[in-house]
Amino acid sequence: MQRDKLALEYGGQPQLARAMALLEALVERSFISVRADQRDDPQRSAYTCITDVLPEIGPIGGIHAALCAHAQAAWLVLAGDLPFLNAATLQQLIAARAPHRLATAFRSSHDGKPEPLCAIFEPASRAPIEAWIAAGQRCPRDFLAHSDVELLTLRDTRALDNVNTAAEYLQARGEFAEHGAAAAGNGAGRTVAGAKRRLNIQYFALLREQAGRSQETVTSDAADARALYAELSATRGLKLRPEQLRVAINETFADWSQSLSEGDTVVFLPPVAGG
Amino acid sequence: MSAFRFSHTALDTAALRAELTDPECGAYAAFEGWVRNHNEGQRVTRLQYEAYAPLATREGERVIAEAVGRYGLRGALCVHRIGALPLGEIAVWVGASAPHRDEAFRACRYIIDEVKHRLPIWKKEYYESGDSGWVNCERCAADAGAAIASSAAPAAHGHAHGPRR
Fold first, then answer.
1. Mean pLDDT to the nearest integer, B100-106
2. Stated pTM of the model
């Protein structure tokens, strides 16, 4: 992908500005990691930069440079290309921080491996990282996989999905308009077509586990509950079929063909098993 | 207090029974559903209950109103547990009081059957093997035919509970 990923816009805001805004609300100070040749980039130079000490070794070089720059600080390291990242995910990470370990990180919801680029690195991780680099290793994910790390399960399973190709960018931008802005609590520049409605979705039991969340607000142009479920089953990986479910709208059992209105609360009910 | 409730803590059956005492009644019947140590060939170690409480409470009250109307009850009450339950714990309690015993017995049966079929309550079983599964869900996720059959007749897959004597 030729474009600079950090300049990509979601919800009308460059990715970098969005990521920094999320971070700044939660940490003492925030910095941008740059290679020496990026120091004068206008987008990046608007923030305090930390330049790689060891050149040409990729993201692990940025983490290492930060640990050198402020050796007593724990670092919340964040990739610039996470359009679905939200404050709740960062808060989950911070709340679960284990300072006695080398790092606190999420397990990838795709492959179960640690996610190094939305993680907290403790000061004690500097020496092992230097040893890792000295041994010719470069991959921060492998470093975490081989270290004493607190691993967390993402509550929002898509929060760390990133964008690497132009096609993914266009898809993510579309999805961001539907879901991301609401999830991030960030309404900047969001345009909503006439037919779109904001809907509150609650998930229970097996669907809660499949969706990786118990509730969310989505913006959808789905005409009825059936169309909404089709949309959510695709974006959230819901594996139960509609004929196995019942639907409730605003705390009342409803038909699948019932039309949806702005602000409705919709719940898809898996097969029940009380008693 | 509502005739259908959820409880996060163990049930005090004596206190629940006391809510139904009535000098007009010659009969009182109660049903307790217990957490059993096996289901469908698996050794169960504990259960987790979850509910969509606003809708379940409303539907539960409707079930009890139906029972009162059908059987001429003087009093009826149902309390369902929510959260983690160890073996042997009471998961659901139903009580009914009526002038005569037949109505009290039949009302208990009606209430527990309808509660199991109609209320948005879900049960996750944890097995000795380390596995776990949502009752009536995992099976139907795997097999469409079985899924439809099980939601049409959940009694076939639900926990069987013996009536209190």
1. 97
2. 0.54
